[in-house]
Specification:
The protein is an alpha/beta fold. The protein contains 5 helices and 19 strands.
Length: 247
């Protein structure tokens, strides 16, 4: 894989706007929050900024602010050319801060796509992978295709899809997931946030949207108290069929 190119914030904005104004509108709150300079970072100005946003976005940003070290450097912005057709793990190394990674073409993987909590991935194309695990943020301008889409970030980040979502299972354990188009999935599991299809949400079989409904889940993905266990779930989906998650 070629070494990523470093971008400025203005270069990133130009590239995103060129690809999709709708994608830029989704990413803009993230950029505004992460690139506030010292003169704009006092409480009054931050409150004014939040007041300009819709309530849902403002709440997500306020939650994220509690988990971000305000003395840290601005995130590094990287333009990456993905050459992998198997799996892609996007992670930060020890000592690195938050990363924003831009990929200006489609992602088409036979294996998994993993996005670590300190990484935001922006894709100006469609995304295909076996399983997509989002602990940070994912923004795409087009549609997403996978077996499993799973997001869990303590409600600090989001998964934004500019087109449709096509999956066998969509699940979240603290991640806002939104499709500008439609959602098509056999199964849905949602415990702590929302999975939204702005043009419609079509779940073929089971739709679980409360931790009170975990009795229909395979005990192998539950802890000793009967609650959803994230590590067990991630291990399970890499070994067995999605259908066997449900009883």
């Amino acid at each position: 894989m070629k070494k990523p190119e470093t971008l400025t914030r203005d270069q990133l904005i130009f590239k995103i706007k060129k690809a999709s104004e709708k994608l830029y509108a989704a990413v803009e709150p993230l950029l505004e929050f992460n690139f506030i300079n010292e003169n704009d970072s006092d409480d009054d100005d931050f409150s004014d900024f939040l007041g300009m946003l819709d309530p849902e976005t403002a709440e997500r940003i306020k939650a994220a602010a509690l988990n971000i070290d305000n003395e840290s450097d601005e995130p590094e912005i990287l333009l990456m050319q993905n050459e992998s057709t198997m799996s892609l793990d996007l992670v930060s190394q020890q000592g690195e801060g938050f990363k924003i990674i831009l990929i200006e073409n489609d992602i088409n993987l036979s294996g998994n796509l993993f996005i670590e909590e300190y990484v935001t991935l922006i894709v100006t194309g469609q995304v295909k992978a076996k399983n997509i695990i989002v602990n940070g943020s994912l923004y795409t301008s087009e549609s997403l295709f996978c077996n499993v889409l799973f997001g869990a970030s303590g409600n600090d980040h989001q998964t934004y899809i500019g087109g449709n979502i096509h999956a066998s299972l969509i699940a979240e354990n603290g991640q806002y997931t939104v499709s500008e188009g439609e959602i098509y999935s056999k199964y849905l599991i949602s415990f702590h946030n929302e999975i939204e299809g702005k043009s419609g949400k079509f779940i073929e079989y089971k739709n679980i949207e409360s931790e009170n409904e975990t009795s229909v889940l395979n005990p192998e993905i539950l802890d000793e108290n009967g609650f959803f266990d994230e590590d067990s779930f991630l291990n399970y989906i890499n070994r067995k069929d999605i259908e066997s998650l449900f009883i």
